[in-house]
Amino acid sequence: MTTTRTRYLIQPLPVEVLAAVRRTGRDAGGRQVERATAEGGEPLRCCLRDATPGEPLLLFGYAPPLPEGPYREVGPIFAHDADCPGPADVTGYPADWRGRPQVLRAYDRRGRIVGGRWHDGEDPEAVIAELLADPAVDRLHSRNVVYGCFMFGVVRG
User: Which residue from 75, 79, 118, 151 has the least number of CB within 10 angstroms?
Assistant: First the structure.
């Protein structure tokens, strides 16, 4: 029996958002961006991998893509302080984060939470497929389990 996987696209931090943050030095809440040097392990939302020690980083508030409403929130994220090539692949789960437990939050077109699931990172595609099988689900947000921070978005591909 052949199992088919749901086709989806990973949505990292939009290039234009990061360009505006770098240009203005302000985040989604209008606060000053913080510059830092990576200790190593900081999850980079621009290229969807962990930082290596010594990389120059930005730490700032980001509002993940959702329509305006009560479920839209601003939270802290890390990104490169300089241009980076972005993720190697947006047609599959980020390879460097495989095995990392995450929470997938499901949202409808209005930006309301309509479900979610924790996964251990070993087979995130199964959880993504299960959540996207619900026609009410418009998009998913992957969230850090401990801190709750936005990691990346997922939409049907």
Answer: 118
H-type alpha helices, the chain: 15-24, 124-132
125: which DSSP letter? H
What order do you get walking across the sheet with 113-119 strand by strand?
Answer: 8-11, 150-156, 139-144, 102-107, 113-119
DSSP 87-117: -S-SSS--GGGTT--EEEEEE-TTS-EEEEE
Percent of the chain with pLDDT strictly greater than 90: 93
Task: Please count the structural domains in the chain.
Answer: 2
**pLDDT bracket for residue 5 (50, 70, 90):** low
Report the pLDDT value the prediction gives residue 6, as an integer from 0 to 100: 74
Give the global pTM.
0.92
* CA-closest candidate to residue 23, choices 71, 54, 58: 58
Is residue 58 included in any domain, yes or no? yes
Cα–Cα nearest to 56, from 27, 78, 77, 75: 78
**62: closest CA among 84, 78, 43, 48?**
78
Judge whether 141 and 110 are in contact, CB under 8 Å: no
Residue type, 137: V
